[in-house]
Structure formats: C-alpha cells, structure tokens
Design brief:
By secondary structure, this protein is an alpha/beta fold. Helices cover about 40% and strands about 15% of the residues. The chain folds into 2 domains: about 160 residues, Phosphoglycerate mutase-like (Rossmann fold, 3-Layer(aba) Sandwich), CATH 3.40.50.1240; about 45 residues, no CATH class. This is Broad specificity phosphatase PhoE.
C-alpha cells in the first residue's frame, strides 16, 4: 500500500518583488514540520517536489528539520497552477482587474478565473486539460514503488486538484479546496497508485503550540 503525503510549501513572500521565495515564517513552518515528523520517526522513502523556488526551499527546510532526507525528485506536476496568467486572460475578457494589494479582492478574482479555466473558457499559460494530465502523472509516480511514506512538496491549488480527483468531485471544487490549504500543512493519501483514498486533509499539528505561524498565503 502506498502512503503519499502532500505537503504545501511554507508561506511565500506575498506582495514582495519575488513572491516565489519563502518568508521567514515559511522557513520556520517547514522546518517545524520536519522536526515534528522526526520526533515521531516518520521519514520518507522518497521526496518529490515541483520546480518552483518556494517548493524547493520548503523541501530544504523540511529536510533540515528531519535531520536529513533523500534528494528530492523533481516533477513539474507538483507546480502550482499559473494564477497570474489566468487572471490576465480573465481581465482580457472584460472583467475588472483586481488590486493585488487587497488580498480579498485578489483572491476573489483568482477563484473566478480558476473556475473559468476549469470550464475551458480561458487557458492562461497551460490548458486545464494539460495541467490535469501532468498533475495526475505526478501523483501516479508518487504512489508507485514503496509502501513507506513519500513526501511531495506542492502547492495549494495542485493539492486541491489531487484531492478533488480522488473524491470524484467536479473540477470547480479544486478552487474551493485551494483556498483552505494552510502553508506547510500535510494531506495524507493511501492505497494503490490506481486507486488512492484520502486519509486526512490540511493538517498542521506541528503548529499547535505556535498558532501565530498558521497562514494561508
């Protein structure tokens, strides 16, 4: 039986010149998750990660907390959906542009753009069909070859996509799940590569004593 742990990256640098970089909070979140896992002797047979900087930095901080981990296997199927390109396409259709400084407005627009993408109304930098296939391939590879935990560092939208597929929910559910996934949370899956089940979603027990470190963006 496969045991896949989907780990969302730590807090990135929202509003900074380089968003795709962990904040100090994000580094601490990932390191504390590693320490929490090591204290329970939960260690990965493999680590997998997307190509984004915030994902790679999360894997590094996680490995530091674990006291060491396998070299991550890189698969672009763990990357986040390209929300910025989707929002640009959404605006090009005559919808109002969000003020990125206003998080609520920005994320409301992002969800609208994501749902239009799921319906095939916009493509952004990658069609939803191509994205869906790449995400499914990443998950298949994660679930093959071992009955020990496989840690996969990904992002909220892609974790939402994987979970909604396992649950058999419509594509639009991925956008709703995305908004719930906390930084450095883990979601556990188990089963066979062709038939995984959801064991838990969006857990952050490593932050129970540090609630000020719980973030969503």
């Amino acid at each position: 039986m496969s045991h896949v742990w989907l780990i969302r990256h730590g807090q990135a640098s929202f509003g900074a010149a380089d968003y795709d970089k962990l904040s100090d909070h994000g580094v601490a979140q990932a390191r504390m998750l590693g320490e929490w896992l090591a204290a329970r002797d939960i260690r990965p047979a493999r680590m997998m990660v997307g190509t984004l900087k915030r994902q790679r930095e999360t894997a590094e901080a996680l490995a530091e907390g674990l006291g060491g981990a396998p070299e991550p296997i890189v698969h672009s199927g763990f990357n986040e959906n390209d929300a910025d390109s989707l929002i640009r396409d959404w605006i090009a259709k005559g919808n109002p542009a969000p003020d990125k400084a206003e998080r609520k407005t920005y994320y409301r627009t992002m969800v609208q753009a994501l749902m239009a993408w799921h319906r095939g109304e916009i493509d952004g930098s990658q069609s939803f069909v191509d994205y869906e296939e790449n995400v499914a391939d990443a998950l298949r590879q994660a679930a093959e070859g071992t009955d020990r935990p496989v840690f996969c560092v990904s992002s909220g939208g892609t974790i939402g996509q994987m979970v909604r597929t396992i649950l058999g929910s419509p594509p639009e559910m991925a956008a709703r799940l995305q908004m719930q996934v906390k930084n450095s949370s883990y979601t556990r899956l188990a089963g066979r590569a062709e038939r995984l089940s959801l064991l838990s979603f969006n857990e952050t027990p490593h932050l129970d004593d540090r609630p000020e470190l719980i973030t969503w963006s």
